[in-house]
From TrEMBL:
The keyword Cell membrane does not apply. The keyword Acyltransferase applies. It comes from Ralstonia holmesii. This is Acetyltransferase. Its EC number is 2.3.1.-. GO terms for molecular function: acyltransferase activity. Signal peptide: none annotated. Keywords: Acyltransferase, Transferase. Residues 4-141 form the N-acetyltransferase domain. It is an enzyme of class 2 (transferase). InterPro entries: Acyl_CoA_acyltransferase (IPR016181), GNAT_dom (IPR000182). Pfam families: Acetyltransf_1.
Amino acid sequence: MHAPEIIVTNEADDESIQIIGNGLNHFNDQHVGYGDRQPLAVLVRDPQSGDVVGGASGRTSLGLLFLDLFHLPETLRGMGIGTEVLRRFEDEGRRRGCRSAVVYTISFQAPQFYERNGWVRFGEVPCDPPGTSRIFLSKTL
């Protein structure tokens, strides 16, 4: 066999990413003995148009709830909607058997929002622009 070609790109197609993910999932499933990963989304829709305007998305796997993306338009912030979305996201994680949840946010985003909702910082890594950091939080469910 010839040595494989190694390519660095910012344009990987969906099929290539899926091959990587499937390979990792297969490895994990063999090691653990099962695969329980499931996507999860809590959507916020405009009642008039029916369009999704925000919400949260992530996944559950091996007893962990991963919150990957969370966004609400500015017009919906400060009304308790974000807290309700987060509560429903956590509740679904619990229903699926998750014991803990993890998220990372950026210091200029909403770390205090998560902390007000019972999440605890467990790490912080400086990033750009200077003075900014990635903040890692977890919550026992």
